[in-house]
Amino acid sequence: MKENNFLYLSRKDVEAVDLSMAEIIEALEVAFREKGEGRVEMPPKPGIHPGGGDNFIHAMPAYIPALESAGIKWVSGFPGNTQRGLPYISGLLILNDVETGLPLAVMDCGWITGMRTGAATAVAAKYLARPESSTVGILACGVQGRTNLTALDVVFPLLHVRAFDIDTDRAQAFAAEMSSLLDLEVAVVDNPRDAVIGSDLVVTSGPILKTPHATIQPGWLDEGAFASLVDFDSYWHPLALAEADRICTDDLSQYRFYMNEGFFRDTPEIYGELGELVTGQKLGRQSPRERTMAINLGLAMDDMTVAPLLYRRALQKDLGTWLLR
Ligand SMILES: NC(=O)c1ccc[n+]([C@@H]2O[C@H](COP(=O)([O-])OP(=O)(O)OC[C@H]3O[C@@H](n4cnc5c(N)ncnc54)[C@H](O)[C@@H]3O)[C@@H](O)[C@H]2O)c1
After folding, report:
1. What's the rounded mean pLDDT across residues 9-38?
2. In 3-state terms, the chain is what percent helix, strand and coil (to 5)?
């Protein structure tokens, strides 16, 4: 830290740090262990809703003593931005010094949000999916479709991907990009059913809606499959959710907070938290035939796990712009 200054990291700077998905998954597993042991401070996220509808801007603070990380993300999600050619998710993160409370850095949080959400899916899948899982269905081929697939590819011996998006051009672009990036066979499918049936791992990553469109029907998710519901229950019919043998979330108190807000009206009882799986307080998958699900809501802790890694590596690489406090 420079006297009286803090570091600003633009989106470009954050990307230039070049933190790998494998590093983020590893760090996040440590953070979930800390959370499971009760050593993370993280109040539920307050939010405002300009324009109403499904728009949100959330404040997400967290303190993780073991990672010497404290700070807050101020993040917005505006579904209409896709039509405007703007990112659905955008915002800034402030990293504070744990000794003095002074701001160390302000950074763009788009890349962080994408990567840490994918990493949280991978941590959940490590405990809930079959280790030999090789076929993935991605429903919605945006930022989250990309980062979730990238993260799953770190943990599983992936071979085949079925990609569905309501916008076929987006699905085609996704297939071209991800097949060459990850050296996988990525096929575009023209209906959601074909992305779910026959997949070992399923990721739904479309818009989060208070009233689910509930497209995925009972009987689609194979026995033994794992699904990550990045867009909450928006994609799933209540009877399809009812087929799950084990549903976990990243934070039960935030899950209940969202229930009070009107989400998850027809979702079955949650089995446990990710932190409980990582610490062994609760068991993960118990048989090759179970259908398992993770509903990770996205935690401030996830962001504050990545932020100090970025900050330290940015200092080493001399990236960013120093601003006067
Ligand atoms: N749970 C979490 O931790 C977490 C974290 C970040 C983002 N999210 C959520 O993930 C979702 C995706 O975010 P993003 O940044 O990838 O957005 P994005 O705009 O990059 O991508 C969204 C994609 O969804 C497609 N789409 C819309 N409706 C669809 C449908 N019914 N079926 C298939 N495709 C559909 C769009 O064409 C677009 O390609 C958002 O709902 C966001 O709020 C969740």
Report:
1. 98
2. 35, 25, 40
Task: Determine if ligand 1 sits within 6 Å of the CB of residue 202.
Answer: no
Query: What digits encode the pLDDT tens for the residues 136-151?
Result: 999 999 999 999 999 9
* Residue 113 near ligand 1, beta carbon < 6 Å: yes
pLDDT digits (tens, 9 = 90+) for 212-243: 999 999 999 999 999 999 999 999 999 999 99
**Ligand 1, atom nearest to 88 Cα:** 19
Mean pLDDT of 125-132: 98
Assign 127 to helix, strand or coil: helix
Amino acid (1-letter code) at residue 22: A
Average pLDDT of the chain is 96
Q: Grade residue 4 by pLDDT with cuts at 50, 70 and 90.
A: confident
Nearest to 319 by CA among 116, 18, 101: 18
Q: What CA–CA distance (Å, rounded) separates 254 from 269?
A: 14
Q: What is the pTM of this model?
A: 0.96
Q: How far apart are CA 138 and CA 228, in angstroms?
A: 10
From 2, 12, 45, 73, active-site residue: 73
Q: Residue 210 catalytic?
A: no
**Ligand 1 contact, 203 CB (< 6 A):** no
Distant-in-sequence, close-in-space partners of 216: CB < 8 Å, separation ≥ 6: 139, 192, 196, 204, 235, 236, 237, 240
Is residue 28 lining ligand 1, measured as CB closer than 6 Å?
A: no
> Which residue, judged by its Cα, is nearest atom 39 of ligand 1?
142
